Amino acid sequence: MTLPKLPFLLFILLWVFAPTSYGQDSIPPPQRVDTTIIDTIVIRSIQEKIKIIPRSVNLVNPVVSFSKTKPRLKRFNSFKMPSFWVSENTLGINLSEVAFVNWNAGGDNSVSGLGSAKFIRNYKFRYVQWDNDLILRFGLNAQEGRELRKTEDAIRFSSTFGYRRDTLSNWYYSAKVKFNTQFANGFKYPDRSKPISRFMAPGYLFVGAGTSFISETNKFNLYISPLTQKATFVLDQALANEGAFGVEKAIVDASGAIIKEGKNRFIELGFLVNNSWTTTVSKNVEMEHKISLYTDYLRSFGNIDLDWELNFTFIVNEHINASLGTQIIYDDDILFDRTLADDGSILNSGRPKLQFRQQLGVGLSYNF
Q1: CA torsion angle 190 194 198 201 (round to 10)
Q2: Which letter does DSSP use for residue 57 in this model?
Q3: How far is CA 273 from the centre of its chain?
Q4: What CA–CA distance (Å, rounded) separates 217 from 129?
Q5: Domain parsing of the chain, residue ranges
Q6: Distances 157 to 67, 181, 209, 327 between C-alpha atoms, Å
Q7: If you write DSSP's letter for every residue of 100-167 in order, what string do you get?
Q8: How many CA atoms lie within 13 A of 37 on its CB side?
Q9: Distance between CA 173 and CA 165 in Å, rounded?
Q10: In a 3-state reduction of DSSP, which class is residue 171?
C-alpha cells in the first residue's frame, strides 16, 4: 500500500477547513457609533476638522457692532385693529389785505378773512357704505370808513346710507339726509336796519330715498332720488309774516294789523339729483364740483332749484394753499326787488334771480 501524494492531501485539508475559517473571518468586527439618535433627530457627536482651507475664505469670529445704529426718536406705533371708517378733518383760514399810506391814486384800507372747517366720516364694508360730511364757513370784511360786513356764511351737513347686492356693483340703494342754513344775520348792505335772513331763516332739510353710483375711490358720487321731501324753515316770525323763502305769509286787515301769523315752514315733495366729483387737474391743482337739482311735483314741476359749487385748490405745500371758488344758486322761492308801501304793505312781491358768488384767497390749512 502506497501513501497518497502531498498535493492531494493539501487539497483535502483546504476543502475541509477553508469554509469554517472563511465564515468566521467574514463577520465584520464591531464599529464605533458616530451618531446619537433621538427619535427622528440625528446629532453627530464627532465633527471632522477642515483640513484644506481655500485662500478666499476669511474665518473670523462674528462680532456684533452697534456703531451704525441710530437711536429711535419716535415710539413704536401700537397695533391697531383695522377700521372700516375713513376720517378727514380740515381747518383753514384765508386772508387778504390791502393797505395804503399817502397813496396818490387813492384807496381804502381793508382786511378780509374766511374761516372754514370740514369734517368727513365715511364707513364702507362689503355691501354697506355710509358717508357723512359737515362743512362750516364764515367770512368777514373790514374796510376803512364802513362797518364790518359778512362775506361768507354756511352750515352744510349731508349723510347718505347705501346698500348694494354684491361687492362688484357700484350702484347702491340709498337714503339721504341733507341740511343747510347759516350762522348770523344777513343784510342788504348798507341797510342794517332789518335783516333779510337769519339762523334757520331759511333752513333747508332734504329727506329722501333713491339710488347712488359711487366709484371705488369715492371721488365720484351720483345720487338720484325720485321721492324727496324738502322742508323750508323760517323760524324768524318777522320774515315768516312777510312770506320770505316761500312760506305762507301773514293775513292782515286793512289797517295792516296781523290777523293770522305767517307759517314757519313750507313742505315740498319732488325729484332730487346730487352729484359730486373730485379730481386732480394737474400737479398740485385739485378740482371739486358739487351740484344739486330739485323740482317740486305738486306746485311747480319742471321749475328747477339749482345749487352748484366749483372750487379749485392750488397746493403750495402741506399747510399753504390758494383757492378759487364759485357758487351759483337759483331758487324761485327767494325773491328780490320787493317794493313796500309807506304803511308797510307789499306793493311788489319781487321776482327770483340768479345768485352768483366768486372768491379767491390764499391761506393756511391743517389736516388731522
Answers
A1: -120
A2: -
A3: 21
A4: 12
A5: 118-135+152-367
A6: 56, 9, 17, 17
A7: -SS-TT----EEEEEEEEEEEEEEEETTEEEEEEEEEEEEEEEETTS--EEEEEEEEEEEEEEE-SST
A8: 3
A9: 9
A10: strand
What's the rounded Cα separation, in Å, for the pair 203 and 29? 107
Cα-only R_g, the chain: 44
| Domain 118-135+152-367 CATH (choose: 3.40.190, 3.30.70, 2.40.10, 2.40.160) | 2.40.160
Residue type, 204: Y
Element (H, E) at 326: strand 320-330
Render pLDDT for 44-89 as a digit per residue (tens, 0 to 9). Answer: 556 666 677 667 666 666 666 777 777 778 777 777 777 899 999 9
- Residue-wise pLDDT for 169-205, tens only, equals 999 999 999 999 999 999 988 889 889 999 999 999 9
What is Dmax (Cα atoms) for the chain?
182
Phi/psi for 14 (5° steps) reads -65, -35
pTM (2 decimals)? 0.76
CA distance 181 to 295: 20
